[in-house]
Write a structure and sequence with these properties.
Oligomer: single chain
Mean pLDDT: 83
Distance between the termini: 57 Å
Number of helices: 14
Bound molecules: adenosine monophosphate
Low-confidence stretches: 89-122
CATH class of the domain at 122-287: Alpha Beta
């Protein structure tokens, strides 16, 4: 991309005049921006010849470019002509800042280089697009400029993201696995994406167990997995099996080998989850060309051929997750402005609530108290989802389960009527949370609902009339229903997989990355919604007699208590010359897909140091060294909704003594 393209969206500039000219800060609106000059409107313009540093940003306040300038024209009351001497060159590295919040806030500055889809020349690579969804997985290909969906071996457009273990030890995926969910719920894994790549934590496991019929366990690498009989599978292995299945059916359908893919991920997936998807793909024989945020993929499918900027909101509510993304789209350029979401907000939660309600009614009507078996739980979930789908098109429906339970030795059917109103009552907390996240993302950017040009709905749950009504009420406009909610993401990924021809994608870091300091306080180093790629340098101060190895525990999230965020691992910096004074300059780099890397050097003299990532030491160990949390109090993250069904399930589990 040329600098001209990169700067097309610039609307404001900040000039920092050289010390000799008073070091003053001048800011104003810009026009006629090119890679060599721009015009800045200011009442009291600096004089011709003054030099300094500048920063160009877009309407959202996102910095597009930094560099050095010289004033070449000055008109009092009008503005100045500014000649660009260099663009964001290394010579304008940010000043070293110490790892203290005040200094960070004041000093950290980024070198941002919005990139094309791929750095390498991948014109000849053939790739497919894959939407690895919580409920369903979809693949698509774009061979001639029109993306189309690939079908599964069973000829369906969507592969249920489900895996089941057969008695003979074989694993099956997709529809065959889904069919086993009711009879063999404890051997059938669904919703695995919710825990993919997440570090295992016994407390979270206890909290989450009610959502899953199969036992959650810790697997190799201290991550979440499922215990199916005596076999333990990590969620990454489940993803690998699904991706291998998609790859095999794509190959047989296309009659050629498929080695590359663009795979979509929820926009707010953190580092560990992204790494898990990459590893799963590798294991399935696929090279990931790019991990693309699902809403960005939907925006690509939406397309935009006009030259003027469209401010787009992609509202993605699926089976397991909710994602809200604000993008600026201008002919072939997709720039993520901000994103937010919840990994535990989706259709499955509503299914659970409805299943719980059905169970309660059944118990009340028959004046019994059941300890539901896993099969009964699975049947309740299945019928609850069916009722939910019915209620998207009709005001009332009935839940029917023949021979649901034995009461006083006789088989009894479950037969209950559910209205749309009742379902909407259950959905209320989910709808509330969805809108809280939405306004959080918009407010964070100073964008009002009426500033949004179009709202695109994707994800199966957006078919629910109450979801559409809430979105319409919030934005004051009818949402755009033009796109197929289940297919848009895969189709967009397929478009992007066509070697990114003509697309420029600019993404943001979905969740802040920072370090845990004493008192377990989380100190942000790279803030969420920072455009990527980005590099930042920090100085770790070192005292006399410091150890010859420095450990930097990295976490990702937004909470002031580091332990409430996700532990990424500890950077271990070593190789400091014995007795050498001075701090360590640590550089964090995020590539265009928010993948983090780090390097280090002595702050003075620049002698390179060695950096490695340690994930062996457990997070408990790391936190213990930092002491108890002593920061300001804050609201604890909301616990995912616990339905009556989940509680019933816990009861059942405790009976079995698990
Ligand atoms: P996705 O993860 O995008 O595949 O979305 C799947 C979720 O959408 C599941 O929870 C489905 O139950 C839900 N869903 C699909 N169709 C409908 C519908 N017509 N009404 C309500 N929810 C739906």
């Amino acid at each position: 991309m040329s600098p001209d393209d990169r700067l097309a969206g610039a609307s404001r500039a900040t000039l920092v005049l050289d010390e000799a000219a008073g070091g003053e800060l001048v800011t104003g609106a810009v026009r006629d921006v090119s890679a060599s000059a721009f015009f800045l409107s200011v009442e009291q313009p600096p004089a011709v010849g003054i030099e300094g540093r500048f920063e160009l940003s877009n309407a959202s306040g996102i910095v597009l470019e930094t560099g050095a300038f010289r004033i070449v024209l000055s008109q009092p009351g009008v503005g100045v002509g500014v000649e660009i001497l260099h663009l964001s060159a290394d010579s304008f590295r940010p000043p070293s800042v110490s790892l203290e919040p005040r200094a960070l806030a004041a000093g950290a500055e980024a070198v941002r280089v919005p990139t094309l889809l791929h750095g390498k020349d991948l014109e000849d690579v053939f790739a497919i697009g894959i939407d690895l969804g919580t409920s369903n997985t979809c693949a698509a290909v774009d061979e001639d400029g029109t993306p189309r969906l690939l079908t599964t071996r069973e000829g369906e457009r969507m592969l249920p993201s489900i895996l089941s273990l057969l008695d003979d030890g074989q694993l099956v995926i997709g529809r065959a696995a889904a069919r086993r969910a009711v009879l063999y719920p404890e051997r059938t894994v669904y919703g695995s994406k919710r825990l993919l790549g997440r570090p295992y934590d016994p407390e979270v496991a206890r909290e989450m167990q009610g959502h899953f019929a199969y036992p959650l366990v810790e697997t190799k690498g201290q991550v979440f997995g499922a215990a199916l009989g005596s076999r333990k599978l990590s969620m990454q292995e489940v993803a690998r099996q699904l991706l291998a299945g998609v790859r095999a059916s794509a190959e047989s359908q296309l009659g050629r080998s498929v080695e590359y893919a663009v795979i979509t991920v929820p926009a707010h997936f953190g580092e560990s989850q992204r790494a898990a998807i990459r590893a799963a793909a590798r294991g399935a024989g696929l090279t990931v060309l790019r991990l693309l945020a699902e809403p960005t993929a939907a925006a690509i499918a939406y397309g935009h051929e006009r030259d003027e900027r469209t401010r787009l909101v992609v509202f993605d509510l699926g089976g397991g997750t909710f994602d809200l993304t604000l993008l600026d789209v201008t002919r072939g350029r997709f720039e993520v402005v901000a994103t937010g979401g919840d990994l535990f907000l989706g259709g499955l939660d509503l299914d659970d609530s409805l299943a719980g309600l059905l169970l309660e009614r059944f118990e009340r009507d028959l004046r019994v108290s059941l300890e539901p078996t896993p099969q009964q739980v699975a049947r309740l979930r299945e019928v609850a989802e069916k009722c939910k789908l019915d209620l998207s098109v009709q005001p009332k429906t009935s839940a029917q389960l023949s021979h649901f339970a034995e009461v006083e030795g006789r088989p009894v059917d479950l037969s209950l009527t559910i209205t749309r109103e009742e379902l909407e009552g259950l959905a209320e907390p989910l709808l509330e949370r969805m809108l809280t996240i939405t306004s959080g993302v918009l407010d964070g950017q100073g964008v009002r609902p009426q500033d949004v040009d179009d709202v695109v709905l994707v994800g199966g749950m957006t078919r629910m009339p109450a979801v559409q009504a809430r979105v319409e009420a919030y934005f004051g406009r009818r949402p755009n229903l033009r796109m197929h909610p289940d297919e848009a993401v895969a189709l967009g990924a397929a478009r992007a997989a066509r070697a990114g021809r003509g697309h420029q994608l600019v993404d943001v870091l979905p969740l802040s990355i920072g370090v845990a300091t004493r008192g377990r306080r989380f100190l942000r180093l790279l803030s969420r919604n920072t455009q990527v790629p980005v590099s930042r340098e920090f100085v770790l101060p070192r005292s006399e007699g410091a150890p010859d190895e420095e450990r930097v525990p990295l976490f990702q999230g937004e909470r002031p208590d580091a332990s409430a965020n996700e532990y990424l691992g500890s950077l271990v910096v070593s190789g400091m010359p014995a007795g050498a004074p001075g701090g360590i300059a640590l550089t964090l780099h995020l590539d265009a897909e928010s993948v983090l890397s780090a390097s280090a050097a002595m702050a003075e003299g620049g002698a390179p140091l060695t950096v490695s990532l340690d994930r062996q030491r457990s997070v408990e160990h790391v936190l213990a060294e930092l002491g108890e949390y002593d920061g300001p109090s804050y609201e604890k993250p909301p616990v995912p909704p616990r339905s009556a069904l989940a509680r019933a399930f816990d009861r059942f589990r405790s009976l079995l003594g698990r």
